[in-house]
Amino acid sequence: MSGPSWSYLNWYHGITGDWATWEPGNRVDPGAVGSFDGELRFNAYRTMANFGVVPRIAITDRPGSWLMESDGEAHLDFKAKAESSPGLSPVGSFGAEAKASAKREHACTLHLHDRSEAWIRNIEDVMLRVQELLISGEWDVGWAVVTRRLEAQRGFAAISQGSEKSFGAKLDADARVMSAADLGSASLQVAPGSTRGDFLVFDFGPGSTPAFSAIRVRHDLWDKLLPWRPSAGTVIGPDGRAFRELPGNPADRALEARYDPERSALAPGELSAMAVVDLFEEVTDLPAGDDSPQSAGGGLSVNPGGRLLSFPLPVPPPPAALAAAGPPGSASAVGERQSPDGLARFTLLDQGDGVYWLEVSLAGRVESPLIVRLRYTSADQRRRELLVPVGGSSASIVALPGYDGRPWRGWSQVPLDSVWSGSPELLQASVRAAVTAGTVRAWQRVASAAPGYSRELITQAIDGAESW
């Protein structure tokens, strides 16, 4: 059975597509350099400053509270000790208490209050330096650079040590609580002594960084960069040892994992000519290693309801090709990509004047809409995410606010747990991005199956938007 660290890290990755720190809240900052082990833990042992690069960091505050639970496995029930506050479906106010219950071992609860997000602004400059280090043999291909982190001023992570366990929590005195999904400005605190050893609890304070994302050398290039050679059905390493296949993370086995211009398949000239976007990728999954628990499909095992598949989405062609594609406003199709499972097709549509839409369609008809997750970078270097429901016989089309034309990623058939446990801002922004009546109808079908608070958020966003 997997341990609490793998269960927690795998759960968070399945919900968000990002990575959590272990122990939860351990400090990690943009520019940190390290690698992942077989338990999904990120071990940072140097920074880009050690390589003569000091990244420029941007920071933005994300006030309010965020609560995530292993849906169906962990649950919080609120009980008001004073008169309820007016507002949207209020559950409690002054002196409200909560009881967290876990139905199985290693069920997870995560609460973040008053978050801030920091990211590297000059990421291309930083990765150009990494490219130089890679060519000179000073960079392990398995190393990753932290590009952004999430800090929480308060909060906690709780992981159950058994089934049918519970603990108590208390709310801020002036809290107005609407539901477990949205705490508004309230902050939860674990009641002292209530866990009785039934939960691993990690409290957050100023400086705690529960989550991050990172960039690495593209994994599909490793066999060309490393000086390994095939031999009679095995792979021979630089030290002469034989493996059945290229190890998922050579650094885990203390193996040489650096580019060698004399023995690697990729020539130095080819490597130096590669653009940053072609050489590096966001870490959205990990290579399968002997120690890493895997799903039957070979990907990370995530929450029921879907499998997390990460893949690059289409990018627009150069400006000259765009100009030849058609006049502004003609919604020319400028790129197309199919998900690895063959389930979804993505078509990038150019509206002219730097405005892009994305059409998402399915290979076959499904009874209930599937949720597809998109992630891209905006012109102001901010990371944007959208959820797209698609199902029935029609495609869904969404606007891509601020899309800067760089490579981006998608997740096909995202588990519904990640939708209900995600931030209210993401859910409402995703609904507002719909540009066709068919996309809105898909959201209405999603709302009909959503938990109460998520259903209200979707309905509010539809009602508050312009007519489709």
Description:
Helix content is 18%, strand content 34%. The protein has helices at residues 4-16, 123-135, 222-225, 268-273, 276-279, 319-325, 416-420, 424-432, 437-448, 452-464, and strands at residues 19-20, 32-36, 42-47, 57-69, 74-79, 97-102, 108-120, 144-160, 165-171, 188-190, 199-204, 208-217, 229-231, 234-236, 242-243, 280-282, 310-312, 332-338, 344-352, 355-362, 370-377, 383-390, 396-399, 409-414. The longest helix is centred in the first third of the chain and has 13 residues, at 4-16. The termini are far apart. The protein has 2 domains: 4-216, no CATH class; 310-464, no CATH class. Strand 18 (332-338) and strand 19 form a beta hairpin. Strands 1, 2, 3, 4, 7, 8, 11, 12 and 16 form a 9-stranded antiparallel sheet that branches. It has a 4-stranded antiparallel sheet with strand order 5-6-9-10, with no helix packed on it. With 468 residues, the protein is α+β, with helices and mostly antiparallel strands. Helix 8 runs parallel beside helix 10 and helix 9 (437-448) runs antiparallel to helix 10. Residues 82-94, 173-181, 289-307 and 320-329 have low confidence and may be disordered.
